[in-house]
Amino acid sequence: MKEQALFINFHPYPFFERHGRSLLPTAEADIHLITRNRAFGGVRGVDPKDFARVTVVDARYEAQWRAACDWTLDTNPVTRVMAIHERAVLFAAELRSRYGLPGTDVETAERFRDKVVMKQAVLAAQAAPVPDFAPLDSPDDLDALDWTAGRWVIKSRWGLGASEVHVVDSLDAARQVCQMLDLSGSQYEIERFVEGDIYHCDAIVQDGVVRFANVGKYTANPAAYGPGTSFGTVTILGGELYDRIQRLSARVLGALGLQEGVTHLELFHTPDDELIFCEVAARPPGGIIPPVIEWQFGINMVEVSLRQQAGLATRVSSTATATAEADGVCGFVAFYPEAGAERGLTPELHKALGVVEHLHSGTDGDGKGGVRHSTDFLDSYVVRASDETTLRRRLQDIEVEYGKSAR
């Protein structure tokens, strides 16, 4: 008998199409799709025949999501709950816990969503160094901090996409930020600013064991997004730092108690060669990282997560990492929208610069020339090269050519 799965979808539906095939296991599970309305792309391309039921809700109102999910679970023999988007992961875990369904429960999910609870657990388990941090529930909390030793970062405990991040260099600056924020309800934290490069580690966990992990280095700070700027990542395929990052990630995931799932962890590598934990999410990496991993290893992290949550068999090749280096190294560079700018690379440049995939979104940005979050890209280019040095040069060349293409 097929699993019956409730899928809470906060993405535009075309997100789940890759190279002409669907990442959703609709042939192997009876999926009850609850999705965003047409204005938010939730039904674009949906064929109702692929699903046990399709329910469309207004993306702006949480009460509609909850009512639709409760009705589906109360009236159908649903055995699994699925969610990919960061904003839906905790909600899905709440439903699993309330209805006694398998998968990540609400206590575990909260450790991957609330950045204070997350760092407390990592610190308690001595899984990794963490920045000095504290809940920020009142401007008075600022007085307990040491303002003589550098900058601090004020950010949402529940935020995503590097949004709601404020770097402050003085107590007065922090107070000014707090005047703009609603500090009620345990919504914010403050942590010490860390100097260094930012890396990510994307893992697949089965039976409490990391079965696969990808390591990459960001080409820019994710919080520095803005109109006309760029962002990217370079895959790291081996070396002493690569091994240290993988071990840190495994310790953190163990400390947070994840038994099964796909994760995206970020950390700092300081000038003193120290690795300091930043944060981790119990969902696939966002933006263009999944296509890069697919080109590098032949693994689609979104598809793996969907299959795991649907209770379906998931095979992760133990040789994926070992054989990847022989095929070269992949990365991406992406460009944020900018008012009045129209750019792009010619097909000839794609071939010359090793572009294996170009993703274009005509709907990103806030419609006024602004950028909403760190993965709000207009044009993205997945690139392959023979080695890391050549890859970095190609990414830089693409930035130059993209800038020259303005018309």
UniProtKB/TrEMBL annotation:
SUPFAM superfamilies: Glutathione synthetase ATP-binding domain-like (SSF56059). Transmembrane segments: none annotated. Keywords: ATP-binding, Ligase, Nucleotide-binding. The keyword Ligase applies. It comes from the Bacteria. Residues 120-310 form the ATP-grasp domain. InterPro entries: ATP-dep_AA_Ligase, ATP-grasp. Coiled coil: none annotated. This is Acetyl-CoA carboxylase biotin carboxylase subunit family protein. It comes from Streptomyces heilongjiangensis.
